[in-house]
Amino acid sequence: MRQTGIDAGGLENVVAAETRLSDVDGAGGHLVIAGADVETLAETASFEEVTARLFAAADPAGAETTAQVAAGMGRGRAIAFAEVSGLRAALAAPDAMTALRGAVAQERDPMAAELVGAVAVYVAAYARLHAGLSPIAPDPRAPHVEDFHRMMFGRTPSTAEVAALSAYLVTVSDHGMNASTFAARVVASTASDRVSAITAAIGALKGPLHGGAPGPVLDMLDAIGSAERAEAWLTAELDAGRRIMGMGHRVYRVRDPRAAVFEKALQRFGQTTDRLALARAVERTAERLLAERHPDRPLRANVEFYTAVLLEALGIDRSLFTAIFAVGRVAGWCAHVAEQQRSGRLIRPSSRYVGAPVV
Ligand code: COA
Known about the structure:
Elements: E1 22-25, E2 30-33, E3 36-37, H1 38-44, H2 47-58, H3 66-84, H4 88-91, H5 96-105, H6 112-130, H7 144-153, H8 159-171, H9 179-189, H10 194-205, H11 214-224, H12 230-239, H13 257-269, H14 273-293, H15 303-313, H16 321-343
Antiparallel strand pairs: 1-2, 2-3
Helix pairs in contact: 1-8, 1-13, 2-3, 2-16, 3-6, 5-6, 5-10, 6-7, 6-16, 8-13, 8-16, 9-10, 9-16, 10-16, 11-15, 12-14, 13-15
The structure holds coenzyme A (COA).
Coenzyme A binds next to helix 15.
């Protein structure tokens, strides 16, 4: 029988830190980020505002206004862009997360807001270079999300595009003690520097069990093609012992509240009716089949299921999805690093030896 909790090595239900940054209610399906519901933030707050809230919650004494944080991000975008030509080798990596990890690793002691700005530049530059195009310079005074979109696509985005991308980035800005955040906090707890902590977080997010599902979700929707084929396709996958991407979550035992936020953002964006209908049908079928196979373990849609549909509607290539997630999550990572550094406590758990006895 499968072990649970600490015996399974997954640290389920282990409280590793006290945080003011976000609260994930896995049973009720609620997510609070820096004192506000994610649903409210996604509809009303800018990415700069949410980042400022997170930073202020992590370090109230050093709190900056949204305008100051926005200026820091703009400065970070400008500084990072000046580095891009020297980073061609790192940015030529075969995948976006390896490129991002390499580019961020060479950052020289940026402020938190500057690092948030830099990540957007590196992801946009990677996207352009891999499409055979030249990277586009940022406008440090422009709103972060609008500037990020323009650096990727080379045109001024519509209000609807900015709203949809902003809702996405705000929603993924923080999410409790997920694997990448924990990785960042472990590194920060050794009194190492911010860049090392964020580089570790990027490495954790790169893994398919954490941030890598949205691309495969689209591959799945493509392979299924139409709602009536969903059951046969999903059954074959499960029979082959494969996981359904975008389903299941370590903490949520109900539907991930972020899935609903993205569904709503998609409806407002109004671009993908057929795709959205197919996604809903596949979700319903997957939920039913998983419930039959795991009656004691609710496996529902997670954030990445509708991330895939939303980012695709925005015209973003699936190879960039995890890196775009990092563009939002870096705000939370930096806030957690600050919070951990303030605590001043080394994270150093124990292990239980189950190896060969001394003979
Ligand atoms: N498809 C099929 N089966 C799944 C599943 C999925 N998406 N997610 C979990 N299961 C099954 C496991 O195979 C396991 O079955 P078993 O007990 O017979 O071995 C059981 O459900 C419990 O899984 P477990 O690995 O203990 O859950 P977890 O908390 O470690 O997993 C995830 C959480 C997210 C890693 C897992 O649900 C998953 O791999 N999902 C797909 C990848 C994904 O969408 N990742 C993005 C997360 S935001």
